[in-house]
Each structure stands twice: as structure tokens, then as C-alpha cells.
Design a protein that fits this description.
globular, L,D-transpeptidase catalytic domain-like, eight-stranded mixed sheet, 3 helices
Length: 189
């Protein structure tokens, strides 16, 4: 009887595993591929979903003495009303918190995308290496992201940053072989 139960459990486990794999695959296909593209040189962040730029935000980046990291990272955690910890200083959530109301931690320990209690720093190299955003922009971005999203931080202007951020406020389709397609941020079309 023990062998029979073992076989039944093995069959059930196999069926459950196959069910989860099939449904996980379907779930993954329904979720948009999202990348946050950050240009340190432009001091801008673009939300790229399934190859199309959805929105571009102004940001603050690390100052010369504490630069932002460069490379490919993942969002590893998301926190509403974070507490700030730095060099034996603890600042609870609130208007004096330098992180603002949201934190998206990166796979590079100690770095993240967050708000600021110094909104005039947006557009400047002013942070300790993190990416700062205006509070309304951050809250909008936070609602669109999830753990596992890719964050690509580029230090120098290149063909990719020129294609995405250009010199105008138009948002263009990302990674297309044909001429750029203008995407209207409000409608996504």
C-alpha cells in the first residue's frame, strides 16, 4: 500500500508540476517585458515595455564624488514609505525623509530609485549614487514596476540613448529597424 500511495503522490506531483509550469509560462507571456533605461548623461529615465518607450521622466543622478552605478540591474524590492538609514542616521517615513514615499531597491546593494525631499535636485548630479525622482513621477513609476524588472543604467551617450532620449520631447519606439515611430505618452499610441 505504501508503494501505491507513493506512485499516486508521484503522479499528482508530476501533474501539479506540469500544471504550474504551463500556467507560469502563460502568466509570463501576458506580462509585459519592462526595462527602465536610465541615461546618466541625459539625467532621464525611460520606461520601455515590449520594445516601446512608454514614458520619460527627469531624474537626479549621483554626484561626481558618489556616482551612480553603471550596468544592468534588477529591481529586487519595492517599499512604500521607506525608512532612511545612512551612517548611523535613521529618518522615519515623512516629509523629511530623503527617500520620499517610495523605494525601488536595485540588485546593486545600497542603490535604488526613490523620491527626494529636495525636488530642486532633479535634473542634476546631486545624489549619493541613487536615482532620484520627483514625488508624483516616482509614485506613477512605482505603480508600473514590479520586482524582477530590468534597470539598465548607461553612463555615456550612445546610439541607444540618442534614439530613446534624442533632443526633443517626442517619445519614439525603441529598437525598431524602421524609422522611429512617435508614441504619444498619454495614450501609448
Amino acid at each position: 500500500m505504501t508503494k501505491t500511495l507513493h506512485r499516486r503522490n508521484s503522479s499528482a506531483a508530476w501533474f501539479l508540476t506540469m500544471f504550474l509550469l504551463v500556467n507560469a509560462s502563460s502568466f509570463a507571456q501576458t506580462q509585459p517585458r519592462r526595462t527602465l533605461l536610465i541615461s546618466i548623461a541625459d539625467r532621464k529615465l525611460a520606461v520601455v515595455e515590449n520594445g516601446a518607450v512608454k514614458k520619460i521622466y527627469p531624474i537626479a543622478v549621483g554626484k561626481h564624488s558618489t556616482p551612480s552605478p553603471k550596468g544592468s540591474f534588477l529591481i529586487v524590492d519595492r517599499v512604500v514609505d521607506p525608512t532612511y538609514y545612512h551612517a548611523n542616521v535613521v529618518v522615519p517615513p515623512g516629509s523629511h525623509n530623503p527617500l520620499g514615499t517610495r523605494w525601488m531597491g536595485l540588485s546593486e546593494k545600497g542603490y535604488g530609485i526613490h523620491g527626494t525631499n529636495v525636488p530642486k535636485s532633479i535634473g542634476k548630479a546631486a545624489s549619493h549614487g541613487c536615482i532620484r525622482m520627483a514625488q508624483p513621477d516616482l509614485e506613477e513609476l512605482f505603480s508600473q514596476t514590479r520586482v524582477g524588472d530590468t534597470v539598465l543604467i548607461l553612463g555615456e551617450r550612445d546610439d541607444l540613448t540618442a534614439e530613446v532620449f534624442g533632443t526633443s520631447d517626442d517619445v519614439v519606439a525603441f529598437g525598431t529597424a524602421s524609422p522611429a515611430v512617435v508614441v504619444h505618452p498619454a495614450s501609448g499610441q
